[in-house]
Design a protein that fits this description.
homodimer; about 325 residues; Nucleotidyltransferase, domain 5; about 35% helix
Chain lengths: ~325, ~325
């Protein structure tokens, strides 16, 4: 019997690194995680990673053959195979392809987590069969992956798809990137906390959230408050959706996607966020694009980051054939 | 001797329709124009067009063989081969591929003028050898054509690339499309006239432009005033460039292009417009994209709209082979 072809999908995060073996149908046969100890030199991290990946492969019952390795990581450059000045990691510049090449003789590809998520949706999730779509990842920040003509857009330098750093207001909130008014400073887990503070300042709406400090507030608390009917919490979600809708209208004007797919923690807020987003999007769309673009939740239920990283390398392998 | 392979490039404008024969090297062997009499039924227009195109072909000295027909037109849909509700034309819906198919047995392709311009730059102009770039056409309005991974982006519905209708300010100027605050209402020949009116209202800067009515003002007058050192005219160009720079930073965040190429009437203002644009662009770029993106003038000097339409069909023909 022929061996089952699998790829190793790896998602390197600031705290943990998840990895697992993914077949062409999008099944994650086995998955686990290790701590991303970014204080250690990168070589030690990759050595530990491959040892654990080897153990994990032995735990899989089916006989597998490794076809490639896909990696999602912050500030990853697809063209160069590197990670460059990643936020939340101490590594300056890591040649990841070379680091993995010391242990493996199979193709390795790397990109950022939002691009990996987009390929995950294309191969295994909500974007199956689509050639033009955008994935928005809503977590601590706002990431994005753009597919047009059936291909992920990496741009001239490998870093395309930073919709989180488009500008809501050139004189607006300071973003973590140093600029003023980036979308991510409004629409993200941290952005909605800032919005609650702004609303607490500008309005007189009563709210249970007024009893928490800026340091204490979390997007989950705001979500739970909104569910309980807290008007200020609900206003914060409305505002977040309205801002997101305006900027997504700009994305549609560029790309005219079939769908925009939402992925990640804050996306779990569901209708609370998507209803005002959809309304604002339609209102701000160029007429020719109205009532065409679908807003969809991710359909990568199980281990989505690992599936995305796996999809990245499956996509590369298929283009080679 | 083998015949020279040529295509017929046609640019359908609100007033005139330009057309000519273009070889694979981007030479326009012969070109002319007819009036776009859009009060006539579309069938009559296309009949007149093909008669004139036939006469023009006879005027070419070299022996030519027609390989295809490319057409740039407002609201043209590449996928369907149609023109739909074009502004400035009385036709509701024209199946252009079918209309041309009555006279010709060669492949026909149609897209809007800005997309045609982008393909013109890629095959014959400033974007030769580039895989990721944006063309901005600055005329009465602001059009755009986007190329990523070496392919023009048409999007899910064939209408992608409407950067002129991204939003500068959701409560801003009313645009011709009905929305508020579109880029085109600020950055275009008509946009800069509106800016002069706004500056005349908000500032006390003296200016020769204060002696002209809203109906009299033209972008050319503003340009000539700015050249003569008129401070309000210069401020209008600065403002226009600053607004354009902010929005192009958003385009770069999506696409990370190698270059942004400027095409059309207002682009002739040169440094007067590009200096403030470049400065504002760099200021508003996500740090990773700074000092990478080239701003370039079009290099389709001779009959650019016809070369663009010709490039459209050359591009289609080459993909077929």
């Amino acid at each position: 019997m022929p061996k089952l072809q699998v790829v190793l999908g790896i998602d390197i995060g600031g705290t943990n690194t998840k990895f697992g073996y993914v077949d062409r149908e999008g099944r994650c046969l086995a998955g686990t995680s290790i701590e991303t100890d970014a204080h250690l030199p990168a070589e030690q991290f990759f050595d530990q990673l491959q040892k654990n990946a080897k153990l994990l492969l032995e735990s899989v019952e089916e006989e597998c053959e490794l076809s490639g390795i896909g990696i999602g990581a912050p500030n990853a450059n697809f063209y160069k195979g590197t990670i460059e000045n990643p936020p939340n990691l101490d590594w300056d510049y890591v040649d990841v392809k070379a680091a993995m090449g010391k242990y493996y003789g199979v193709p390795v590809a790397i990109t950022n987590d939002a691009n990996a998520a987009a390929l995950g949706e294309m191969l295994f999730g909500a974007a199956r069969g689509m050639k033009d779509f955008i994935v928005i990842t809503l977590g601590t920040g706002l990431g994005s992956g753009i597919v047009a003509n059936g291909e992920l857009i990496y741009g001239a330098d490998g870093f395309a798809g930073e919709i989180g750093h488009t500008i809501v207001d050139p004189n607006g909130r300071r973003c973590g990137c140093g600029k003023l008014g980036c979308l991510e400073a409004y629409v993200s887990a941290t952005g909605i906390c800032r919005t609650v503070l702004e609303l607490s300042c500008h309005s007189t709406t009563p709210s249970e959230l007024r009893y928490y400090s800026a340091a204490e507030l979390t997007s989950e608390m705001i979500y739970q408050s909104a569910l309980r009917g807290d008007p200020l919490a609900q206003e914060a979600f409305d505002f977040t959706g309205r801002v997101l809708g305006v900027k997504l209208a700009d994305s549609v004007a560029h790309l005219s996607p079939e769908a925009i797919i939402f992925f990640g923690g804050l996306a779990a807020a569901g209708e609370m966020l998507f209803k005002p987003t959809q309304q604002s999007l339609e209102e701000h769309l160029f007429p020719i694009f109205r009532n065409k673009v679908k807003l969809l939740p991710s359909r990568l239920a199980d281990n989505p980051a690992v599936l995305g990283a796996g999809a990245l390398i499956w996509n590369v392998l298929e283009k080679k054939n």
